[in-house]
Fold this sequence. Notes:
Helices cover 20% and strands 32% of the residues. By secondary structure, the protein is an alpha/beta fold. The strands form 2 sheets. The chain has a 6-stranded mixed β-sheet with strand order 3-2-1-9-10-11, with no helix packed on it. The mean pLDDT is 95.
Amino acid sequence: MRRILIVSDTHGSLASWQRLKSLVGQVDEVHHLGDVLYHGPRNPIPDGYNPAKLAEELRRENLFLVRGNCDADVDLLVLGISEAPKVSSVSFGQVNFVMSHGEFFQNEEQLLHFLEEHNARVLLYGHTHVPRFDWIGSKLIINPGSPSLPKMGSETTFVLLEVEEVVRVSLMSLTGKIFEEAVL
C-alpha cells in the first residue's frame, strides 16, 4: 500500500509538522499545497515557528510542492526544490487529481471549471486554512485545512491517501479524528 500525505499552509510551524508526522508515521510521498515556510503578513506567527528546521525536515521527505502565495524563491532554495508549479495534475491509482494552492478561486463555478479543465475527479487546494470535503456530483473537492493556523473555528487538519486497488481519502485532525472519508 502506498501512503500519501496531503498538507497545506504549514507556514513554518515545526511543532505542527512534528505532531502530524508522529501521528501518520512514514509516508511514501508528501504533496504540499503551498505556503510552506513563511507565516505571511496576514497571519500570526504560528506555534513552534521554525521555518529553517521545518525545511530541513521536509528535505528528508519525498516532497512535491505546488507554489502558494507565500512561497518565495528562497523557500524553494532551502527546501531543495528547483521549481514549484502553481498547478499539478497527478494520478493515484486510477483516479485523476489536480492540485493548486487555490488563492485564485473566487467561487464554486471556478472550482468546477478548474476540475473539468484538468480532466480530474478530485481537486485538492489550500489557501483558506479551512478544511473541506464536498462531493459535487461525481467530483470531490478537498481542502486539507492547515495543521498550524486553522481558521473559521476549524481544527488542525490534513489529508491522508492510501492507494491500493482503490484510493482511500481521509480528512483527519492532528488528534487522529477522521472527519470525512471516501473510497474512490
